[in-house]
Amino acid sequence: MKNDVMAHVRSGGRLISLYAELGGYFTPEGELREKSFRKFVRTTLQQKSAKEEAGQWLSEYLDHVLGYLDEKGMGSVTLGMFEIAIDESAKLGIDEVSLSPSHMQLMLAQRNIIGRIEVPAKCDAGGKRAVILTSALEVFTSSGFHDATMEEIASVSGVAKGTLYRYFTSKDDLLDQLLSEASTNIMTRFAGVLSGSETVLEQIQTFIEQWVGYIEENHAIYRLIQAEGSSLRGGDQTVFYEVLISNLPMVKERVVSMDKLDLLKTTSFHTVVYGIFGFVDGIFHKWVRSGMDYPLSDEIPAILEILFNGFVRDHENAKVFFVPPDDSSSSQDVSFDSK
Q1: Is residue 234 domain-shared with residue 302, that is, in the same domain?
Q2: Three-class SS state of 15
Q3: CATH of the domain at 153
Q4: Which pTM value belongs to this model?
Q5: CATH code of the domain in which 243 resides
Q6: Number of domains the chain contains
Q7: What would the 3-class secondary structure string for 263-326 be?
Q8: Using one digit for the tens of pLDDT, what is the confidence trace for 303-331?
Q9: CB–CB of 60/3 below 8 Å?
Q10: What pLDDT digit, counting tens, does each position of 13-60 carry?
């Protein structure tokens, strides 16, 4: 059987074109753009010369996409995509669409999840929860996470210890909630980034600028997590950029999708992302050591210059360490998905 599901470049065992395609059907936050996906399915099915061919294409396509999204931990969106695909195929009179048993189990599992009722949060009389979180951050920053105590947090918060435990079960729970709040704030700030009409390079620049601004405004919790990250929660290193990446599950696909002018090298996505965040983190520590006596945003031009153009003045004589594979490459393990 000829596999013409999509033209693609194999690199590191992944489908680069699949990233670009899915990037157009999802927001960076991982929400499905239903109209775009429905239009794609309908148009592609209509282009097939026979119903049997259309059903075969859709079966193979669903196996590719559902499997990929499940691997990414995005099983919750697969049911919506599956239902759209089946709806469009039924409208065109396509009677036979097959799905592997594992993917059928995934669809059934997602359907069972739907309808579960989320328990509403406890009533927070007088905003005590927010006060406790703010006080906990203050204590964690001044005393260090491991030396901080619930008694000290209760004292700084101005609440009884019993009241503190009604809101948070432990120091770890407090830290988890601080990270959750930070994650929400990050998502609010970055919701529009990677969604506009700018070029991919302009949007990456905006992303970096916004990230530096966020760190400057929230340097206390950023410094806490960076300082304690290697030993928090039983060795589960939690740093801000991991929170950001996990809450923007389709950011890689969106970046590839936007690179319509082929401006980016096809290299390891995670290596590049962690490299960018690591470089910014180094600038942050330099800023802290200086006493934070100037705006961190003053460093943005230098950050962008180094990240986009490097630090070698004479590019003609610059040493080349990496050459991205051409489109015919099939054996290089340097994909935009490699970790």
Answers
A1: yes
A2: strand
A3: 1.10.10.60
A4: 0.63
A5: 1.10.357
A6: 3
A7: CCCCCCHHHHHHHHHHHHHHHHHHHHHCCCCCCHHHHHHHHHHHHHHCCCCCHHHCCCCCCCCC
A8: 999 988 888 777 676 677 766 655 444 33
A9: yes
A10: 445 566 667 777 877 667 788 888 899 999 999 998 888 899 899 988
